[in-house]
Specification:
There is one protein chain. By secondary structure, this protein is of the alpha+beta class. Helix content is 17%, strand content 22%. The protein has 4 helices and 9 strands. A 3-stranded antiparallel beta sheet has the order 7-3-9. A two-stranded parallel ribbon has the order 1-2. It has a two-stranded antiparallel ribbon with strand order 4-6. Helix 2 packs parallel to helix 3. The radius of gyration is 18 Å and the shape is globular. It starts with 6 loop residues before the first helix and ends in an 11-residue tail after the last strand.
Length: 171
Amino acid sequence: QIARLNLGESKAVPKDATCVALLEPRNEMDDSHAAALVAYLRRGGRLLLNVVYVQTPESWNPALDSLGRRLGFSLGQDLVCALVADPQSPDQPGRYGNAFVQNLEITNLNPVHDLTRMMARSGRFPMLKMAREVRRGLNPPDDVGVDLSLLRTMPYSWIEERTVTSGGGEA
């Protein structure tokens, strides 16, 4: 059963929740909401966090600092890109306006982790689009394990800095 959760109203994640999914959040998270999610995780809950890059408005790229501080991660604000072959411009593959750089094939999967082992063994690599960087937080809590080895980009990936301001003009 799938149910909508509003932590502003309920103040806590229900005890019978199997997983909480935060799908493309557009706003910063309130401290009390982050605390409720961490309390749920400490009870054995599971959290799926799906963030994407949005060119404009910039405010739709929340940093989720309140949750990140508690769980030992931080989110980048810029687009992660990957070099792709461009038959139209072989000397400039995958850049200069080619939208395919937004597609990331994750070719470096952790071969031993439960979440990625089967994909790694079968050679099935996930594709991500409009991705943002996930980094280890500066001071992760001592009682939180931070594992960034599950999914990694291919060697020719880069962070593309934002070129459009929130007002729509060029930076």
